[in-house]
Structure formats: C-alpha cells, structure tokens
Amino acid sequence: MFADELAGNSSRKRAEENKARRLRLKAQQQRKATSEKNVSSTPVLVADEAVPLAEPSSIKPCLSSLSTEHTTSAVAKNVSSTPAAPKTITSSAQLSAVEKAEQQRQIRAETTKKVQASIVIQTFYRRYNCNVDLRKHHVELLSKRTQDISTIREMLLQTKNIRYVPPPATATAMVRQLLFLTTRVIYDNKTKMRVRVKRIDSFRHLDLLASLVNNVLLPGMSSVDEKVNPMLSWLATQEGRTRLQHLLRVVMVAISSKKTNGNVLDSLLHFLQSVLGLSKDTSAPKQVQDYCCSLLFPNNLPFYDSSPSDDPPYAFENSDLAMISIVRYFLLFISAGPDPIPPDAMNARESCIPEASREQGGELFLIVLHAVNRAPMSNRRGLQSQMVTMLMTLPLFTWKVSSAALNVLIHTNDASTRTPMVELIESFMEHRSNDLSQGYVNAVLTTQDLVLTRCPATPAQCLLANVVQLGRICPTTSGIDTDLFDFKSTAILFSMISTLVEAIPVGTFTARESCVEWIDDGHGVHKPVVLSPVVIEQCKALLVDSHVRRMFTIAIDTEILKTNEVLQKKDEKDLKLEDEMMKEGATSAAALAAREARIDRSKSFWNSSKWARKLTKGVANLLVKDGDAGAKETIFTDKMSTSGLKNISSESRRYAEGSHTKYTRDLLFCLTRTYAIVIARWGGGGKNDIVQRKQLDRAKGEQDVATTSVEPCVISLLNTLCFGTSLLKVLWAITQSDSQTVAELHSVIDPDKGRVPIRMLQIKPAISSDSRCDGWTLLFMFVSLLGHVLIVTDDVELYDMDKPLPIHQIRRCIQLLKKLLYRACCLDDLSVAQNSTFFGLALITASSKAMKDLYDRSSRRPLCTPKLWIVSDLMESEIRSCKRHGDFSSLLNLPVLRICPFLVSFKRRLKLFECIITTSRIEIQGVNDVNPFNTNPLKKGIPVRITRGRILEDGLATMNNLGSNMRQRIVVNYYNEAGVRETGVDAGGLFKEFWTDLCAIAFDPNYALFRVTDGAGDCMYPNPSSAAAHGSDHITLFEFLGRILGKALFEGITIHPRFAHFFLSFLRGDYNYLHMLPDLSTVDPQLYNNLMFLKTYDGDARDLCLSFTVTTDDFGGTKEIPLVPKGDSLEVTNANKLRYIGLVAKYYVVDRVKEQSEAFTRGLWEVIDRSWLRIFNEPELQVLISGASDGKLDVEDMKANTRYVGGFTGLDRTVARFWNVVARFDSKQQADLLRFVTSCERPPPLGFGSMNPPFTIQRVGILRDGDKLPTASTCFNILKLPTYSSEKVLRDRLLLAIQSGAGFELA
C-alpha cells in the first residue's frame, strides 16, 4: 500500500506539471503572434530585449543537455541572426516602390530569424530549468523516502525486534528513481540510443546510492523469504534484467571513483559481494549470483582505454560490464592518476600512490580474486588466466593494491596448500600452454589499452616485476621461513619467471642508465621509448645475490643427489689416463708438444673414451644400475655433506624438514633454467656467432634478443653461483648420473641422433608437469660456471686440491666439450645460420671459452696426454686438397682453426703452417730448379754484405728497413775480418749460417735486450731495462729482432732461444690477462710467493705497511712507481689487497715489458701473419721456433729420412760406421754436426722427414785417411763423407771438421 501511494503521488504530480507546462507554452505562442503583427519598420534585436538570458554558467549546462544536432543548429541560427555589417538606409525619395518593398522584406526576414533564435534559446533555458527542478525534486523525494524507510526499520527493530524489509515494488520504484537520476539518454545520429551513467561526483548522490543499498536492497537479499527479494522478480522479465544490469553499472562506476570512500564505499562493496555470493551475512539467491557473475565475468574481456572525458568507458550501455577490466582500468588510470606509471615513481616510491587509492584498489582486487576462486572449475582456469593477463601485467601492481590484498594473495588458506598467487600462475601456464610452448609470450600478454608511448614498460616486464616482488615476500617461495617453504610452489613460480625472462627486452638487465625500446609508429618509422627505470629495478630484484644464493642453497642437496659419490668414482678409462700421465712424469708441456709433432694419431674419435661410449649408448650406469636414484622424491636425511665449497646440504635439509612438501629436483631444474637464460642473453655470447664471425641477425622491427658483451649483473650472478653454491659440481654429477640427461647430451654431440644443429637449440619452456631441464641447458650452465671459476683457480687448486673438479672429471669434461665443438664447427650445416638462437650461440661460445682456458692451463702444466684433445684425421683431406698459397691460407678461416685449433693434431697444424710459408716463399722468391719447364725461376734476391766480426751491426744496417720485403730472397756475401770476400756462393746455405749466427748474438742475454727467467728453465723475455742499456735505439732493435724471428720462421730455420710462456702469448697476439699470477711465478718466484702470502694472510694487511707502489732496480738505480694515481698514499688493506696483487702481477708481467713486446711483435708480424701463429699454443709455438728436438737428435728419424748419393747405400760399411758414431755423440756434438751440414743446430719441427732438401750423404773416395776431411754443401744439406778405414778415424776426422769453425769455401 505504501508503495502504491508513493507511486500514485508521483504520477499525479507529473501529470499536473505537464498540463501546466502546455498551458504556458500555448499562452506564450499567442503573445508572440500578437507582437509580430505590431513590429515597426526600424530593425530591433527583439530577442535580446524580449527574453532575459540566463547567466553563462546556467546556459552552458542547458546547452550540454541537448543533442549534438540541436546544439549545432541553434548556434548556426544564432550566428546567422546577427547581420554581417549594418546596411545603409537611403531616403525614401531616392528609392522606388519596388526597392522599398525589397528592403522591408529583408528587414522582416532578419527579424524573423532573430525571433526564432531567441525562441530556441528560451526553450533550451526552460528545458534545463525544468530538468534541474525535476531532478532536485526527485533527489529530495528519494532522500525522504530512503530516510523514512531507514526510520521505520530502526523503530521496528527497537520496539518489536523486527527487521523491516521493503516490498519489491517499493524497491523497484526507488531503483527506477535512482536510475532516472544517474542516467540519461543520448541520441546518436537519430538512429541509435545508448544509456550512459551520469558522473557521480555529488556526495549527495553517493549518499543516496549507499542509503538505497543499505535500507532497500540489502534487507531484501538477506531475507529468508525469497518473495521479498526484488532482484528475483527482476530476473523474470527483460525490463527487470535490464534494470539490474543498469544498477550494477551505476555501482561499478561509483565504486571505481576516487571520490567514493568511507562508509559509502563499504556499502557498495558489501552490495557487490552480496550479489556475487561472497558475503557471509548477506547473500543473493543463486539465480541472482549466476546472472551477476555472467555479467561481471564474461568470457571475453574488453580493454578499456583511457578517454579525455570524465566518464569511464564502461559507463556506456554498449560496453561490456567486465569487472576484471574495470579493476584494470581503475588501477591503470584512476588510482595513481592518468599515467599508468606516475612521473615521480622513481623518487617517491610507494608513496606515489595515495593510501586511499591503494585500499580501494585492494578491495576491488580481493572481490575479483574471491569471485574467480568460487567460479566453477570449468570456468575458473580461464578466469585465473585472465587475472594474470589483465591485472598482474599492470605496472607497479604491488604498489597499487593494499597490503591486506597482497597478504591474501601470498598466503595459503585452509582449503588449499598453495597460495592464490601460485594458483593463478599455474592456471595461466596451463591455459596458455600452446602459445607459451611456441614462444608467443609477448603475443599472449599484449594488451590493447597500453602502448609503450603511454606506459613505458612492456607487459612481460611488468608481469616479471610483479611476480618477482610477490615471490620475494611470499612465505612459501621466499625461503625465509623454513616452516612454510614449499618446493613445488617455488618451482611453479620460477617456471613462470624463466618464461618471462626470455621475453623481456634485452635492455632490462643491462648496466645502461636508460633502457631504450624502439617501436613502430605504423608507417615503418621506428621511434625510441625510454623504459621505466622503476619497473626495471623491480625486475633486477631477481638477480640480487642474497636471493639467488638462498634459492640455490635450498634447491641443492649433495647427499640426495649423491654428488660426491659420482665425482669421486673412476672407471677403467680414467685409470688408464692416470697411468699414462704418471708415465709422462714431470714431462713439460713443451716436451709433450714436441713429441706430438713427431707422431701421428689414427685412433677413432668416437671410440676414444669409454665414458664417451656410454654417452653414445645413452646409458647412465656410472653411479647406480637400477636407474636414477636422484630423480626420486624423498625426504632429507641428516648426514654430513662433504662439499668442497660450502656445506649447503644441511641447510637444504633444514628447509625440507621444516617445509610441508617433500624435496624435489624440480626446483633446481627451474632455477637452472631461469638463470641459464639470463646468462645466455646477457652474458655476451648469445648474439655473437663465433663460428661465422658475425652477429645474430634480427628481422626488421624486432628487438635484440641478447647483448654483445657481458653485463655486470651476469658477472655478479656467476660469482654468486660459483663461490656461494656447489651448483657446478651438482650439475656435472647430474650430467653423468641421470639417464635422460645423458641421452639428451648424446643428441647434442652426435649429429646422427640429434638432427637439430647446436646453433638452433632452444631452452624448453617449463609449461608442463615435467619441469626438468633439457640436458643442454644443464650443460650450458655448467660450462658457463666452469669458465668463470677457472678465472680465479690457480694451478695448485686445480692440480692438487681437486678444485673445481677432480682431474679425472676435468678430463671427462674435455672429451664431452671436444665432441660438442667438433660438431658445431665441422659437422653442423651452416646454411641454417639465419635460424640460429641466442641459446645455441651462447652454448658454443661458453664451451669454446671453457675449453680454451683448459687448453691454456694444459699448455703450462699438462692436464692430460695430447691425444685427448685431438680429433683423428681432422683437416687431413682439406690440407691434401690444397695446392697454392691462397688455398692453404684460406684454411685458417675455417671455424675449427679459429675457435678450437687444438682439435687438430699439432703435427697436422705444423704441416699446414709449413705449407703456408713454403708456398708463400715460392711465390715470392721463386724455385731453384734446373727444370726447363719451371715457370717460376729463382729470383735475383737482395744482396747483403756481412762481415764476420760485425754480424748484428751489418744485419741491422742493411735489413732493418726492408719491412715486409724481408720475405724476399736475401743473398748473403760473407767478408772476413781482412775485408776479403769468401768464395762461397749463397744458394741458401750462407743465409742459414748468417741467420743462425745473428740469432745467437741478438738473443744473447749478455746483450741486454733479453733477460732469463728465474723460475722456469732459462726462458727469455724482453729486458725491462733495455732502454738503460741501449738508449732510444732499443725499440728499433726489438723491431729488428722481431723481423729476425719472422724471417727464421719464414725460411724454415730453427733457432735456439726458448722464450717465456707469457712472451709467447704476446707473439700470438692474444695474451690472457687471467694468467698473470702463474706467469709471475716464472718471472720472479720470490715475489710470487710474497703475493700468495699476502693473499692468504689472515691478519690485518695494514700490518705489512704496503702501498700501491713497486720499486724497480735498473743497473743499481732504484725507482718507485705508483700502480694507481697517488698510489704512494694508498695503503693496502684487506679490502683492496686482491686488487693490489693483480696490479703488481700486471706490472711485472705486462706493463714493464709492454713497449718492448709491442715493438718485437710489430717486426714479427711484418713477416709472419698473425693468423698463422694463432693456431698454436705457447709450447707449440716454441716448437715452431726451436724445433721438436729436446737437445738429442732422433737418430732413427734422421737415418730413416737420409738420402745416399755418389755410390753410398744404406748397407755400406762407411755409412754404418757413420751412424754408430752419430749415435754416440753427445747433444752438443750432434748439434754441431747438424749445423755443419744444414747451417741449423736443430731439426725442423716436423722432423727430418720435412727437411727440404733432405739430409744427404755423398760418397767421397780416398786412398789414405789423411787425404780429406768431411765437407758439406749447406745449401743442399749434403754431407760429403770420405770412405775412412775405421770407425775411430771417421769419428776423429768428423769431429775435427765440425768443430773447426771454418768459413764457406768452394767445395
């Protein structure tokens, strides 16, 4: 009855008002018609005088209430009613009757227009006033009714304890009134109609809405009697459903307004929770809940873009009412202002978001979260995935919602063992698994409402930042609380992180101050956008040292993984290799290289290792025979760990014992995958294709996927993983003990099993239930860590302390990486290089770096026998197929010789070098051949006059300015001390004699150009005091000495000097500065020991009273040199002592001989191309310079490659006596014999088989033993041996000849 009365009064009053308005309009029209008849002929602005216009502030809302068409026409009429210029009225005497009539018609027409315009303005004004009055009346009426209902409810509750529920008709009428006040109809082109919610900015309207909800709607929904629930009756008709939809739209607009707060906000949130079934005390019927959920949570979510108007996009009837999108719009464009990322976010931090907005955003997010969690399972996964895509991709999400909302998101509830955050992530990855597995991460996360120009952060960046921030504060994933830690949840979290790390812009983890992303403007023009530093800072929290160390500490348990047992186990092959190394004893690397040059290898590459054969078969029985025990999920046991770096097993067990889930390797795999991607993308190897010597191409419009140089964050990450965890040992143990990993590694190294080239390998996304890593991912992480840890591992730790791995495991690693590099450089098809991935290129780069470092180590102190490095028959066919110098030189550009030349046997590389210089020498100098068909005869050459007592001086004066012409033939003319020319003709022998003598003088330490090392076998290096001995000419002398060495190599002359290891590195042109300390031990052992004492000193380094200076002693004069600016005042402390040690080593090994070394290499490289030398390591280069002999001649090799002429044969009695004599010679006598015949004291590096011309013995018949001495033709390596009567006579006469030191005369 009360509702009928209310409805009747309202209808009657509206009818009376309409009737009165019609009467007024009719009377007004009659008055206007009368006034038009009495208009005078003088032009008057009737509208301005007749109608008093309202104030501008009143006219503006009046005009805004009109449609667009009406407003436009009104303005046009008003403008046209004003004359452009006043017309001149002439006197009536000058005008004819027709002209006067025309003038009057114009005046009447203008007056009519003005009158019509004034009528329109008056109509607008009246309509606006009526609208305002009507709305004021309804606001007052609705306020009075809601107050009356509130009073009735309070009275009944106090007097009779009855909860009054308004009838459904009353609720319907009042809701209609509310919708009338908050909505209006706009006609679009007179054809389409849409309803828009009026902007609710009046506190009175908000109070009305809250009062209506509290006193009218909520009581009906909370009643047990469904008949009094107005919403149930609304669902029965289309009009009612539309009414409910409009009501929800009004509530959503109000609830997402920044001006809605306090009790009003609480009431609206309560209403929303009730209609969604989330309220405990007030809940709508199931039918209402389902209908409201279908409206607020549709399957396809819209993207609400920000608009310049005050009305949100979802206020229009033709837009979807999706609550997830509305919350996204609020957090993007309302809570923190119109910018998704506030301009002051970097400085103001969390305070850039008002606290009230955070609380409001948190409440809205919680409603969405709870509603989604209560959705049916068929829809829940999709809605949870939409929450990740729409809400967790928002920039600064953790700042824009309240702490209470975050606590709900990261804490578990009674119904689930996983946090809502983990459930959202898991649902997203399962729901979008197909797209994620194909790498379409950015396509999945791309939104239409945000572009980089508006929000300077990609969705992948924002999602990664939010997930990292949430993971670090979540008790089950942060690792801070051992009782709450959950292995599986953390594995899911890092599976998501690894997927995102691969999709974020490469500038995210760079050290640049600003990260720039280039975007396409749609017209093919790319413009730069500076990405948000705040979001980048949040992403970098993933790489914080303490967080990384804590995660891997939890994930690694060496006891369960049986790491130490695997690493200590040796098979038959390991024992055999150890026996071979024991037989070598203290043999130096140079001696091994010399021996390698004299023998050939023919053993099959694929059968070179028993452990490699196990890899080939895919069997992992090195540890256990009954499968992979480490793969089983088990609970930690309390055993002591024997890890060499850090006992982290006990810490891992402590986490597992306190956590409510069992230990699983999945977390270790997910962590490894995540940080392997970081190292691959930002470690400098993911973009550089070292095989083809170019950078990874990217398509037009695409962004870079990797950096060209290593970033500081990767160095910090590697430091943490190498020296704060035992990850390196664990990964290597898994690669041997896990059968699936072994099989996957086999597919990497064997092209018959793995069809995908190494350069095209990708990291498998962790989107399935199996979150384990690929074998190549584990291998990449291992080789990256190995290459990094070898930087600071000294020889004592490597060879004697089994750090980072036992020696037999290092040998296994060499075998595996050898096969990987062999496939990458020699077997894989390079035609698919355009499809290379950053991970494949990074794997090749990391493997080559680790192998090169191990090979450099082995060049100083052998890790294994030389055969372990090489691949049988590699490069054999390529060398044989070459004929000319260009063909041989082109082989140096092959990837295997540029990246891993150690895979090719040293003998084969020596052969290639010999072919290169021989063919080059023939092209430049010609051939000394009497063959009439010779098209390249011996060229004239450059004559050089040499006095025997002034070999160095004459050589410097005549040849130092030749430069690259040193490759030409040089003809030596010897003069004795009396100035008389010797009669010998130089066909090559005189030059070799001169060059041998020149080298002996130039490299004599007494000449003060070179100094001998104190700690390594009298090896030579440039004298730091050469300037004091030779003045400014010492640089010229070093350049000349470099040319001397280059000419010796070019002519195939072996010389005696043995150079220091570090100086040989300078000659190759790629000195490894990481080896300065080992090199210092050869230069100054005492200084090295002092520095090692300082390194391991446990006390305060200040007690030693050291500063950043060194003191030099040049010929008795001391000088103090600062290592850094003002080093004399910088004290050495425990904090900077490692820097001091490095600077001292650098000074003694590099800096003080840098000038001399650079001059020497300049001269050397003028004659010998640098690329020719880089295929050798330091001991091999020494063999190239000094030959493979270690002092004693290989008589058997010499005998086997000797040619006999003049009547001699190998069975001749005199020949047999000669070989018996030579075999009994000591080292010096053998060297004198070789020099007597060939002008060189040492045989060629490849042995006598490579000597050209070959060593020859010519028969000289004599009658008496005293007739002749043995003579030689050094140009042709011929020994002219008389037929002596006995072996004793032959020995005596041979020694007399070779030790007499006679010059060259005609034989």
From TrEMBL:
Source organism per UniProt: Fistulifera solaris (Oleaginous diatom)
Cross-referenced PANTHER family: UBIQUITIN-PROTEIN LIGASE E3C (PTHR45700)
Domain HECT positions: 962-1307
Designated name of the protein: HECT-type E3 ubiquitin transferase
Annotated active site: C1275 (glycyl thioester intermediate)
UniProt superkingdom: Eukaryota
GO molecular function: ligase activity; ubiquitin protein ligase activity
Keywords from the named record: Acyltransferase, Ligase, Transferase, Ubl conjugation pathway
Biological process, per Gene Ontology: protein polyubiquitination; ubiquitin-dependent protein catabolic process
SMART domains, sorted: HECTc
Region (Disordered): 1-41
UniProt-listed Pfam families: HECT
Record has Hydrolase as a keyword: no
Catalytic activity annotation: S-ubiquitinyl-[E2 ubiquitin-conjugating enzyme]-L-cysteine + [acceptor protein]-L-lysine = [E2 ubiquitin-conjugating enzyme]-L-cysteine + N(6)-ubiquitinyl-[acceptor protein]-L-lysine
InterPro entries: E3A/B/C-like, HECT_dom, Hect_E3_ubiquitin_ligase
Enzyme Commission number, as recorded: 2.3.2.26
Gene3D superfamilies: Hect, E3 ligase catalytic domain, Hect, E3 ligase catalytic domains
